[in-house]
Write a structure and sequence with these properties.
The structure is a homodimer of 211-residue chains.
Chain A (H helix, E strand, L loop, with lengths): L7 H19 L4 E2 L1 H8 L3 H9 L5 E2 L3 E3 H12 L5 E6 L3 H7 L8 E8 L8 E2 L2 E5 L3 H7 L4 E4 L3 H13 L4 E4 L12 E4 L2 H12 L7
Parallel strand pairs in A: 4-5, 4-8, 5-7, 8-9, 9-10
Antiparallel strand pairs in A: 1-3, 2-3, 6-7
Helix pairs in contact in A: 1-4, 2-3
Chain lengths: 211, 211
């Protein structure tokens, strides 16, 4: 697919399209109109047509979209048509929960969990080995790890992020409640849970409830 | 504070301002210029001035911002100047991790964790009791719970969300990978982890790396 300028807002909606199309595909539906997709997704049909037009030529007036084709193309755009290798740094509650999460089916394969507690050395979570932090650099290089999930205490995150950047990690999925300063070619995607809770509390605060 | 139309983009940035201002306050700094704040936050000073102007009269040319005042005002806007009561539905790995998370310091107090597994009845996580699902409605009403955190399997989420809406919950913090259909007066804030990972993989996919 040739390159186009696609707005961030559209990109943000793509995983949702991908999820819905996957469900529709699982239900054995081969073609769908923007109107039907609109009903399921609670997005207007015109928004859907506009979004999908960004990628060109998926829909045919009167025939609707070929579900499988659209699903595959969006998968390619999102880069989930291939498997990404991932490690989790921090084997605490959160790291443990994420290790138990079945991200494989979405194209993300967790290869190891790193921790500093010697008592965790040699254990495993869902078959994924827990390794010690002094093995980090070698493992990342040898296994060609693309993504590191950061679930460690705020005070240690920056040091670990630096180590990961130095050994060639391409992306950090950051659950620590701070913003990382990394080179431009390293992708950082933050999951700031407290920020999300604050958005929620803003929306329930009485001054804003009549919006 | 009187009501104003504040854009969603600004609201999304407020938790971040709140976090930085809290850190600055902890460091004993009383006044800060937009330029200094800009250096810390990696946002342009003009963006900061523009954002904070939305709330009117916080900054004084040449004097900078009063950190404590700004922190408190943003806290009020976000609704975190009071404590919100919260329950977690689902005592699995994820619910467990969230129960262990210290959201209290940000104004969110977890009162109970609900599960269906009888063996968890009467146990507790960080002093928070695990209760059974048949106690849900009574507890939500009696304790005036505002927020329910949904960390249960996708197949059960809709049924539980319906029950919560019926007993007067005001907000759902949804970790299940589906979009909930609830009345307009119930706030839903989604943390769709797979969507976040897909944003990340989009950004590292080679076709987009030169952006």
């Amino acid at each position: 697919m040739e390159e186009r300028e696609i707005s961030k807002a559209v990109i943000k909606r793509l995983p949702r399209y991908y999820r819905y199309l996957g469900e529709i595909l699982n239900n054995g539906i081969e073609r769908i109109s923007s109107g039907e997709l609109s009903g399921k997704m609670q997005v207007t049909a015109s928004q859907i047509r506009q979004d999908l037009n960004n990628f060109g030529g998926f829909g045919q007036q009167g025939y609707g979209y070929n579900v499988k084709y659209l699903y595959d193309e969006i998968g390619k755009i999102l880069g989930v048509n291939r498997v990404h290798s991932m490690i989790i740094i921090g084997g605490g509650n959160f790291g443990h929960a994420l290790a138990n999460y079945d991200f494989e089916k979405n194209g993300f394969s967790t290869k190891a969990i790193f921790d500093i507690r010697p008592e965790l050395n040699g254990t495993s979570i869902r078959g994924i080995p827990v390794m010690m932090m002094d093995e980090l650099e070698e493992f990342v290089k040898k296994e060609d790890i693309e993504i590191a999930v950061l679930t460690l205490p705020k005070s240690k995150v920056e040091e670990v992020a630096d180590r990961l950047v130095k050994c060639g990690i391409r992306a950090l999925w950051n659950f620590a409640h701070l913003d990382l300063d990394v080179p431009d070619d390293v992708v950082v995607e933050n999951v700031h849970l407290v920020d999300s809770l604050m958005q929620l509390s803003y929306r329930i605060s009485e001054d804003n409830s009549e919006e």
